[in-house]
Amino acid sequence: MLASTLRLADVHYRIALLRAKMTAVRITAYVGLAAGAVGLGLMGIIFLYVGMFRLLTDAAGLPVWGTFLIYAGGHVVTALAMLIGGMWMMRRGKGGGNT
Q1: ∠79-49-56 over CA atoms, to 5°?
Q2: What tens digit of pLDDT does each residue of 37-82 get?
């Protein structure tokens, strides 16, 4: 009786260990895929910036400094929108409810 109980406990232990290993492998694969997606996304953004730069300087005939000013203005507007949105969300959270 004791031997079968120990054997059953050993089987349960091995199953739990196998599940933990499978979970670790799955998490590793997800992290790798997420890192690849981030890398490809950053490359896409870089190519988008280069393409817009070429479009504005070559096709539209803007000077380089004008293109950089457009980029800077776009970043300032985006940063302000994120700042205002963050402040709004923080004020909304202080009310104690989701109103």
Answers
A1: 105
A2: 999 999 999 999 999 999 999 999 999 999 999 999 999 999 999 9
